[in-house]
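haha ok so turns out i had the wrong file open the whole time. this is the CORRECT one, sorry everyone. sequence first:
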Amino acid sequence: MFLKHTQIAPDRASSLLTSAEAAARAIPPAFPLDATVAVNPFLGQAGEDLATASARLARVAGVRVTRARTDYRAQITDGAITDDDLAAALFASASPLKPTDLALLKAKLAADSPAPQALPTVADLAAEATGTDWPAVIARSFGLWAAGHFDRGQALWTPAPGLGAFAAWRAWATHDLTPEIAGLGGFCAHVAAAPDTSERAILRAAERLGLSESAAETAFHRLLMDLGGWAQHARWLLWQAELAGESDGTITDLLAIRMIWEEALLAHVPDLSEAWQEVVAQHEAPLAPSPDQVVDTILQDAAERAHQRGLATALTGPKPAGARPAVQAAFCIDVRSEVFRRAVEAQAGGIETIGFAGFFGLPVAHRPRGTDMAQAHLPALLTPAITSCSHAEGEEEARISARAIRAWGRFRQAAVSSFAFVEAAGPAYGWKLLRDALGLAGARPAPDPAPRIEGGLSAAQKAETAARVLRAMSLTTGHARLVLLLGHGAQMANNPHESAYNCGACAGQTGEVSARLLAGLLNDPETRAGLAAQGIDLGGDVLFVAGLHDTTTDAITLYEDIPAPDHAGDIAQARAWLDAAGHIARAERAARLPGASPESVAARARDWAELRPEWGLAGCAAFVAAPRAVTAGADLQGRAFLHSYDWREDADFATLELILTAPVVVASWISLQYYGSTVAPAAFGGGNKLIHNVVGGIGVVQGNGGILRPGLPWQTVHDGEALAHEPLRLTVMIEAPREAITDVLARHNGLRTLFDNGWLHLFALEEGRVAARYLPGLDWSQAKAA
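then structure:
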């Protein structure tokens, strides 16, 4: 018999709902598969240091957020981490629980820290008491509903369309007999009798569960973590709504749904009351890291200091300016570009490369040919201000073709026709699978027509936009006759996470559109005429050509969108250099890929059965904003985001502010996503690619249902024998006056918090060398990187 509703005092109700809001914001957003954006899984813990976040996530998710001590021991044994690194990390820790000296710290390495255990939910306790796996029942039942409700075009039927999540789930759950078949009698009636809003349902459940105000936040957080990627998808809906100046209550709805299950199970197994109240008491305890968690975070800091020491040594310092370059090539700051930039610079002395965010400073929402659906091509932190399209003559034919493909896909999936389709098409698809497995697939489709900005820009707007981008790129003087603008994308087959390999600065799209739009803008005569008034002279012989770097095959496609007969020789020479660089880059990358050779890289990209067509951004560990001379010639092993920046050309430090608040933050999200997917794959990883099934166009589940898996698949960070990604928090190195960097941090509290709490490390460079380390509280130490 379920308990009757109990009235709640207003102050208590307000406190509980505030805790629910805090728990919701402790969950990171997860972007859908068509535009996967790397997200910092610790976004909700940015206000805490790593040790405190360790305590929190151990309580609510049962995960460790540092590596096992065996990994640190191995690095110490082989000399990668030195006693100086350990001593410096120990000294930097402000925890009163840290070991008193280096000898005691090293003694702690002998045994691993205890494996964390999440505080149990009522479902966990009920499973232990009854022998029924209630968490699995909830995961399957909830996941089946969520797959239909949140569907983005994959499903042929959606339950209760048009309703909010809470109302839609109630309509579903009152007819879902799965819980009752599993033994939870009366569950449908319990759902039917639930309050009519998620807020009221949370308050009623909190009363029935006996949650105190001090226990509520981590208890709520625990339940949301139990929903895995579904909660993170709901957090993304809130993220998107707030970007548009609105709000969204879906994640609150999901918390209410999960709490209704809890109160039903507590009533179903009344003997749980005492055990559950013990759990509530543990949730009431203040969050504080254990001595072991403090030791683990010191060891993590030591590993990062070891990397910083090597990075500081690799910096090459300033070089005198040379003659006019033969060609300049602007790449995305993506770490995969670092390998190719070294390779292309090695082709001739007159080649200069530039690093800039792959959306090239254009806040674009783009409509590809054949559709009116606009795709964001800019960092997730920004909102599009320009709309572009690739529509051209014969557009209606392209639309008809796209509709036919979609209709054919639905026919293949339909309940009646799918079996007939398999019967008829099976032999043909068998040949297709064999062809793709052997790397015999045909050429990629032709690119869309050159994109254009809808509505156009005035002559003044063209000049202002171009000047802003060129200043941000530190590309206002010394232009070559040929300047390449190279976005990037990744070619691969049968990979639900394909967009995660594309350009993070382009919201998981390729950089083709942004590069082609900017090249067209910078070649426009009206732009050129207006740039003089902006204090920029491009020169009459300068041509901009867009291109796309395929990071899976290291092939470069150049888009000659305008005739340029005077530059035919320059373009031909550039193609030869790029082709030669591709051979070098493929050889370097193939050495890291299991079973790969330089010759097999292209075939792997087309192989539908290939688990690791490339490593993506695995290994990322550093961000350097400085003139290229500071890193030119250094082999940074594809681990550094390289952003071109000359503070001497940044009069008001507006570009410095842009770099710190946008590219640095995006790079930190990427770095911490790889970190979280490596150290805490159960909570923040995408699971095993071999058993993935795509759900709703949103994400993947393992097997045939259950909880959505966020983050990166295990094969993305592990080669089958060892980690392919070393989980390190990002080291940021900026060549700029410390006062200017400090001023930016002082004006952006969210950014400062990341550095103050150690989620990022920050160094100031002077003349290409490490000069100072940032300390919490807007302070600096003269100590070097080590």
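Residues 192 and 483 are 65 Å apart (CA to CA).
again sry for the mixup
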